[in-house]
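Late entry, evening session. Most of the bench is empty. Finally got around to the prediction I had been postponing all week. Sequence below, unchanged from the version circulated by S.P.
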Amino acid sequence: MIYRYDFLVIGSGVAGMSYALKIARAHKGKICIICKTTLDEANTRFAQGGVASVTNLSVDNFEKHIDDTMIAGDFISDRKAVEQVVYNAPAQIEEFCKWGVHFDKNKDGKFDLHREGGHSEFRILHHADDTGAEIQRGMMEALRNTHTIEIKENHFAVEIITQHHLGVEVTRRTPDIECYGAYVLNPDTGKVDTYLSKVTLMCTGGCGAVYHTTTNPVISTGDGVAMVYRAKGTVQDMEFVQFHPTALYNPDEMRPAYLITEAMRGYGGILRLPNGDSFMEKYDERKSLAPRDIVARAIDKEMKTHGLDHVCLDVTHKNAEETKKHFPNIYQKCLSLGIDITKEYIPVRPAAHYMCGGIKVDLNAESSISRLYAIGECSCTGLHGGNRLASNSLIEAIVYADAAAKHCLQHIDEYTINDNIPEWNDEGTMTNEEKVLITQSVKEVGQCMSNYVGIVRSDLRLKRAWDRLDLLYEETEVLFKRVKASKEICELRNMINVGYLITRQAIERKECRGLHYTIDYPLHAYDK
């Protein structure tokens, strides 16, 4: 089947939904959203903490938020991108509210602001401890009430379409690569259909599932990054993988691991060893409120030094009723495991959480491939640099969704649909009866990345990961050419591609910087 749209959106988190809503409001063209699973299963709903925006101008200002972001990003962040997000954040918060998203307010009717690690002021808007779920709910309601947007749930984008599919040789030095849409797997027919579009937006989320332990849902396999990389687009800063310091330690629940929000440390939570000793004062003067990379490395070191499988987060000194009020879902979750957080420590350990790099885009969210935009976690805007400041991701997504929508609307009439694209050819392939090969390879990728490309790295570990991934790549490509396309084999290909990119770009960075910490280059380049 061949489908034609003006705007093709691949992904359904807050980034894709806000973009689609903005386009639908301003343009009568055909819009299609491709959802890998269902509309409500996106990384957005797992975000507990909140959205960072300068709101209380009596104590906060834009320069403070900009400085906090630059410091957390280890000064690798693109200041223009930082300024674009920070200055435009309040207007996008207003739009959130118009779409029906509710943020908690205090008795005076003003936003109840939290503070999180790396922030100098209270500026985190939230909805209890399930802000992402509330944003997803509000956005989905607005989306389903917009009848000009077609939603294709449980469809899987296999590849984006470029001149390569017209028989033109495309390399990383080709200056005028264009995107004409995507090949998409239909779960009902098992066929790969052709989706042609004037403009394509990639907003496929993160890639935490390439690690064995992650706070991400298992669908976070880096699909967008892998597709754009295979299409010879520019991918940048993949070595900067953020490990959230405080995922709930539960051996029966590792994929995804339950997240203990950073707001709990902003609330006054203290990191301790199981014997009650605090330890963050040894690593940073900000103690438990230091940025995530510092806290995650500190926990990793303490676990290795003491032979522990977790450390603890302590909020027992806080008012019990206030704790239950601010963190109702975390309270109930821990209680279900026999832990009363008002009386007992919470067992926590780091887990792969967020990708700071991705598809390189400019201030309009344009990728290096013409007619292809990228926003959300799959993109690399330059905002995060070497390390994401807590709660900057959701606001980045909607600010860049706004920028992408405005730029697309200015240029959409310049593009036409390319009807010369051939349909997907799977002649000679067969149904895959060796699924054990795929499931085993998925496990190997996760173990390889967690063991060798984790919080602390070395040249030896990275070389070992490179070799293992290279072997998995060769095996998987042979299998992919033999069998019909399926979600499972495509996800595996994407995971291997993303694992390779993380490893290669980690090898290329010969310094410790931000989230990339290696024992072979212990000093910043500018410290030497």
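Two things to note before I forget:
Confidence is low (pLDDT under 50) at residues 524-528.
The chain is about 35% helix and 15% strand.
Will write this up properly tomorrow.
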